[in-house]
UniProtKB/TrEMBL annotation:
Name this protein carries in UniProt: Beta-xylosidase
Phylogenetic classification of the source organism: Bacteria, Pseudomonadati, Bacteroidota, Chitinophagia, Chitinophagales
SUPFAM superfamilies documented for this protein: Arabinanase/levansucrase/invertase, Concanavalin A-like lectins/glucanases
Keyword Signal: yes
Pfam families, per the entry: GH43_C2, Glyco_hydro_43
Amino acid sequence: MKKFRRALVTFLSLSPFVQTQAQDAIIDHLPATGPASVVQKHMEQAKNPIIFADVPDMCIIRVDDTYYMSSTTMHMSPGVPVMRSKDLVNWTTVSYAYDILDDTESLNLDNGNNSYGRGSWASSLRYHNGIFYVSTFSGTTGKTYIYTTRDIEKGPWKKISFAPSLHDHSLYFAEDGRTFMVYGNGRIMIAELADDLSGIKKGTTPRVLIGNASAPAGNNIGLQAEGSQLFRVNGKFYLFNICWPRGGMRTVTIHRADSLEGPWEGRVALQDQGVAQGGLISTPEGNWYAYLFRDYGAVGRIPYWVPVTWENDWPVLGRGGKVPEQLNLPASKGLNPGIVESDDFKRKKGEPLLPLAWQWNHNPDNKNWSLTIRPGFLRLTTGRTDSSISQARNTLTQRTFGPQSSGATAIDVSKMKDGDCAGLLLLQKKYGWVGVKMENGEKNIVMVSAESGSPVEMQRLPLKGKMIHLRADCNFTNLTDKANFYYSLDGKSWVKIGGTLKMSYSMPHFMGYRFGLFNYATLSAGGYADFDYFRIGNSL
């Protein structure tokens, strides 16, 4: 026991990097009982993935001892979520850069148009002279957007937009007061912005920064270098990009230069598990990490952190070129309620109507949803007729998450009209849902699957009462990507309905599966459904 205590004291005095190397040796000599549990608790560490949910295209900054992270949610509103952390592991959504990106037919799901897989893409997050900047770009509108605020958590945000849409750009504030955007695909460009950031500076022309940023990964490239993130560390510039060699995997490349004028030299920085696209962040203690993400099937693109060391002024990613499972960071406390959140729809005076975990599928129609008409319930009223659930407005969504997650709700369906459909959705192109269809004055519990590419009603059962409980269970373990649906008449005894949905990540949506609450009409508008709660968890 004395040897164990001495070993523990020695361990606690080591640097985090050396602790990792020493940890296994100490655990091998722990006694079977007693202080072992205390040591195990002390040794709890973060594990990759850091967030087992769809949080892609991250950009992270640190202001003093607080980290902020922006991400991509594309066609969802509000958009460009901003999350806060004190330890790089446990994150809480604190704001969004915008309520809606723009008021267009495709963003409003009007006249058969949609913005699936578009909306706003990879953002750049910066802090300069007391102001926070979040910039993004859109394939829907063809514009670049810059949002600014002095209070990143409370706002308000000021919006600037201009054409063209600068792809996967990185915002950079130079020491001489000028502002630049680095952007592009394959050939990386740099443009100087006007002093008021209203567009590319008049009298200037964007120039080539790096002619072929994919070159370090070879000549046979499928996805050319993109996802630019530019950093300046100790007087040198570092440009992070992702590319994808054919027959290989997503790859991190880094280019380095002493000035923006170049010359630039590049190298492959990481090829492991397809973990790529992101940038650099340092801790107050001086430790460095690369924040990256990995495509992981139907759950989406999930964040991984990789330790960074420095050799000859180059950032070296990973341990022996590999992404470690464990990190010298505090353990995760879970995603609920920081990233996802249950909701009883009860609101106290002064509380926001919707927790920040919620996002609407496309722009909402604010005339047709309410938390006040019937306190304690979310009312979704149909404002028009639609031919499919993917075109329905006011579908309220949250992320699914891995390795397993469940979402459940209860609905009062007594005021639905003929042709109405309301329920619980798993949203992607190959969606599935469980809910109630109203036809010829009769209510039926149904499960619908679009796994084949078109919606198919897999099962229906008559519903006599006015309340129904619904549940969807997702299994993303080892890319299982399967979901099952259930109903209950009392919220206690659950019955499986329909078939198992084989979930599939598809480019038309370009997003991991989402839980969704919906109500849409196929015959006439004006019916409504009242949702009593939404509960989310690893299992229910």
